[in-house]
Structure formats: structure tokens, C-alpha cells
Amino acid sequence: MAQVFACEFPDVYWFDVERDVWVMPQPSGQLRMGMTDPAQTRAGKVLHVRAKTGKTVVEGQNLATIESAKWVGPFPAPCEGLVVAVNPIVMTDPNEINRDPYGQGWIVELQPSSDVWRSTLMTGPKAIDAYREKLRAEGLTCMRCVPPSDDLSPESEE
């Protein structure tokens, strides 16, 4: 996994750098999508996610609405297709996006209408270079909104 300014980018994922969306092709041909590490950092603690299946979208259209303590906004589609799944974990615990944006924090799965996304999204070193430039320009360093662990309590053991 590559890191840029403490932001993580899994090597096998595809990225819509402009929209801060990651895409992971599934064996079924569907595309699993979520917010990138920089996107969840900018949003802060995610409080609510609204998304539904059965919605046909074009590139750039809203797949879901994300609400955080400091922001409400769209989760944009990086390509055209049909929303076929919504992550039930994120629907009940939206902060999972902050804790694990590339794993349990995925948001939707889309059945793409074509393979054009392969020519518009970036992966590997090309994506990392684009994010390095973008994050440097924004002055952004990533962090995760993770609840405190019981193991890190201020009490000392004797």
C-alpha cells in the first residue's frame, strides 16, 4: 500500500482523483466504491450516509449523500451504471468510513454500463503521482477519526 502525506492508497484499487472516489472491481463485474483516505479526512467524522439500490447514474451524478460533523455533500459516481448494493455496515455505522475507508467502509456497488471507467480512472504509480500533487497543493495530511481504545486509557497499571 502506497502512502502520500500519511494518506493510504491500496495498490490494486482504481482512483477517480478529481472526485476522491476509489473503485475495486469485483469478480461479478460490479464495482465496489468508497471515499478515499483524503476524502474521509476532509469530511471528518461521518455521521450519516443516505444511499439506495436501483438508481441508475451517469458519471458525476450522486451515488449517495454523506453527512459529517462539518460537511454534507454528494458521493459522486466515477462512471455510469446501476447501483446494485449499499453497504449495510455503513448504513448502521457510518463512522466505519473513517476507520476503514478501503475495507468495511465501502459505500456502494455499481454495475457499470460499460468498461469506459478503465480509461478514465487511475491506478498504481500514475494515481499516486496525481495524489501527491493534489495533496501538496491542498496542504492535506490524512488522519483517521477512530474512537479511543480502552487499551490507551490514562490509567496506569500497578
UniProtKB/TrEMBL annotation:
Pfam families found in the cross-reference section: GCV_H (PF01597)
Family: Belongs to the GcvH family.
PANTHER family per the UniProt record, alphabetical: GLYCINE CLEAVAGE SYSTEM H PROTEIN, GLYCINE CLEAVAGE SYSTEM H PROTEIN-RELATED
UniProt xrefs under CDD domains: GCS_H (cd06848)
InterPro entries with a match to the protein in the record: 2-oxoA_DH_lipoyl-BS, Biotin_lipoyl, GCV_H, GCV_H/Fam206, Single_hybrid_motif
Superkingdom to which the source organism belongs: Bacteria
Domain spans labelled Lipoyl-binding: 28-111
Protein name: Glycine cleavage system protein H
The keyword Transport appears for this protein: no
Keyword terms: Lipoyl
